[in-house]
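tool=predict chain=A
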Amino acid sequence: MKRLCFALTLLALLAGGPGCGKSEPPAGDVFALALPQQAQPRLPTLTLWLDNQRLTAEIARQPMEVMTGMMFRTNMPDREGMIFVFNDAERRSFWMKNTLVPLSLAYIDPDGVVREIHDLQPLNTNSAPSDSRLIQYVLEVNQGWFRTNGIRPGAVVRTEKGGLKETFFPFR
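tool=predict ok
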C-alpha cells in the first residue's frame, strides 16, 4: 500500500511538471512526502557550448533527479550547470524550494534554442513559468552567468555529439 501511495504521489507531482512546483504544499499534505529531503549526488556530466561559451553540465533526466535538481546544494562551481531533459516539449515552471544557490535558468526548445532566461532567488517558492509552450530542456547556472557570457535568447546549445536532439534522442 505504501508503494502504491508513493507511486501515485510521484505520478501526480510529475503530471504537474517534473522538477517544478507552483507553490509549497500545505502542511500535512501527502505531496510533501515525495519532496526530496537532501542534495542528490553529483550526476553524470557532458560539455555544452552556448554559442562560443563552454560549460560542463550535470544531466538531470530521471524523475527524481529532475525533481531534486539543485535542492540543498550549497554551491555550484564556476562554468558548471545542470541541464534538465524532458521527453517532450511543453510549458515548464521551476521554483527554488530548498535551493540555496542563486541561479539563472534558460528555457530551451526542442531544437536547442534558448527561448527565455530567468533569474531565480534562493528559497523562493514562487514558480517561474515559461512563456513558451515549446520547452524541452532547462539549463540552470550560477546567477548572472548568461549575462556575463553574452548569452541571450536565440543562442543555440550544442554538445560534442551535435544538437540536443542528437545527444538525448538519437533514434527519434
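The helical segments are 2-15, 63-68, 145-148, 164-168. The mean pLDDT is 86.
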